[in-house]
């Protein structure tokens, strides 16, 4: 991606009262930016309390999904009993079990393992690939997460745990904006970080397969916490580190 100009734009953002959210509309799709009905636009919802989510999730009911998928096949005029489709409800149900496994997982589980490190420098991990599901259409959106935080009292988490944290929230029915905020909130809360920045860049299949049909449109969202929300210069500096990463460019 050549979205570094986007990061520059974000780094100069001045809206500090809430996480900054920008959409990069390569296709200049104004309808998308307005978050029209039934589309995954840039509508920003309050971040949902992460802690409450797993306890509410009953787990994925695989047989129920199988029945529902069979109904869908019937509804589109297909014969769910023909050779090619007989196993489809079962396959879809198992796929959904994986795709939505984050509903029964929590970021705390991954971030509670911490260790001490003498450095007070920021930790930046760029190019974390993620797959998520748009809650409006149950279609995938996928892209890269770039995560940075400034440790507090030398407490740091394993780098792989940052990727796990992204997956915990990505593997749920999501909005990209909320996903970005939830990742930032989790790092802020569980690491007590002095500052957090999360940037997500993603392509939404509900944009490319249907509706506006704009392949290649990349939506970029940013959430900042602590120092990186209150201090524009610090935010700009950390974003420049994120964009220097080979996979983040
Ligand atoms: Zn959608």
Helix content: 25-40%
CATH first level of the largest domain: which class? Answer: Alpha Beta
Mean pLDDT: 79
Which strand order do you get reading across the main beta sheet?
5-2-3-6-7
How many separate domains make up the residues?
2
Plain-language structure description:
- The chain is of the alpha+beta class.
- It folds into two domains: 4-47 and 106-248, GTP cyclohydrolase I, C-terminal domain/NADPH-dependent 7-cyano-7-deazaguanine reductase, N-terminal domain (GTP Cyclohydrolase I, domain 2, 2-Layer Sandwich), CATH 3.30.1130; 62-99, no CATH class.
- Helices cover 39% and strands 20% of the residues.
- It has helices at 4-11, 30-33, 52-56, 62-75, 88-99, 107-111, 159-170, 176-190, 205-208, 227-230, 232-244, and strands spanning 114-116, 123-134, 139-150, 155-157, 173-174, 195-204, 219-226.
- Strand 2 (123-134) and strand 3 form a beta hairpin.
- Helix 1 (4-11) runs antiparallel to helix 11, helix 4 (62-75) packs across helix 5 and helix 7 (159-170) crosses helix 8.
- The model is unreliable at 1-57 (pLDDT under 50).
- Bound molecules: zinc ion.
- Residues 40, 134, 136-137, 139, 204, 206 line the site of zinc ion.
């Amino acid at each position: 991606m050549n979205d570094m100009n986007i990061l520059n734009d974000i780094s100069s953002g001045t809206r500090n009262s809430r996480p900054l959210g920008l959409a990069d509309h390569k296709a200049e799709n104004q309808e998308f930016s307005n978050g029209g009905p039934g589309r995954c636009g840039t509508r920003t919802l309050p971040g949902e309390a992460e802690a409450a989510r797993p306890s509410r999730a009953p787990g994925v009911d695989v047989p129920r999904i199988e029945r529902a998928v069979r109904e869908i096949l019937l509804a589109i005029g297909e014969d769910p009993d023909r050779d090619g489709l007989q196993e489809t409800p079962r396959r879809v149900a198992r796929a959904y079990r994986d795709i939505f496994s984050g509903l029964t997982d929590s970021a705390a589980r991954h971030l509670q393992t911490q260790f001490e490190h003498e450095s007070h420098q920021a930790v930046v991990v760029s190019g974390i690939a993620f797959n998520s599901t748009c809650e409006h259409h149950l279609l995938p959106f996928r892209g890269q997460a770039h995560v940075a935080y400034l440790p507090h009292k030398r407490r740091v988490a394993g780098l792989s745990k940052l990727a796990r944290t992204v997956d915990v929230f990505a593997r749920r029915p999501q909005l990209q904006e909320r996903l970005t905020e939830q990742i930032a909130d989790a790092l802020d809360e569980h690491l007590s970080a002095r500052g957090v920045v999360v940037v997500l860049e993603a392509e939404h299949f509900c944009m490319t397969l249907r509706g506006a049909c704009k392949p290649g449109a990349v939506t970029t969202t940013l959430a900042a916490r602590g120092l990186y929300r209150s201090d524009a210069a610090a935010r700009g500096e950390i974003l420049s580190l994120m964009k220097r990463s080979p996979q983040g460019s």
